[in-house]
Write a structure and sequence with these properties.
Order of helices and strands: EEEEEHHEE
Helix content: 10-25%
Strand content: over 45%
Distance between the termini: 25 Å
Largest sheet: 7 strands, antiparallel
């Protein structure tokens, strides 16, 4: 498992291009957003967890028609990222001190043109087993 925080945002990220986005789940108690992806041509699967979420921004435009496939994804230090900057401008001082200034921001781009942006304390990336049945998804 790989954990990304503000201190290591430049680590090499797993290759998710053409991975099938299998939806996401948000746990309100832990403020964790997680999604799973299966990348068929390299027979790999991952669970991506955005932990201690501060904000979520979803752009849904389907410029190129519907597609659950991931085009690319990146992670930035929060102080250089647009969603975290918006949250910082709107937050009170206590909230800023409690972690928002240490945020990382993940951006998942889809082949359709959609985008998911998440500001959080850390991102966990866990490889999962890829079984032959998964190819039929």
């Amino acid at each position: 498992m790989l954990t990304i925080t503000r201190d290591n945002v430049n680590v090499e990220l797993p290759y998710l291009h053409d991975g099938i986005f299998l939806g996401f789940q948000y746990d309100e108690e832990t403020h964790t957003l997680r999604f799973r992806t299966k990348i068929h041509h390299v027979r790999t699967a991952y669970c991506i967890e955005f932990r201690s979420v501060y904000g979520i921004d979803m752009q849904c435009c389907d410029d190129w028609g519907y597609s659950p496939n991931i085009y690319d994804w990146t992670v930035e230090e929060g102080r250089n990222a647009p969603l975290t900057q918006r949250l910082l401008a709107q937050a009170d001082e206590k909230y800023k001190r409690e972690g928002l200034k240490q945020a990382v921001e993940g951006l998942v781009l889809f082949i359709s043109g959609n985008a998911l942006r998440v500001s959080c304390a850390q991102i966990g990336i866990t490889p999962e087993e890829f079984t032959p049945e998964d190819v039929l998804l």
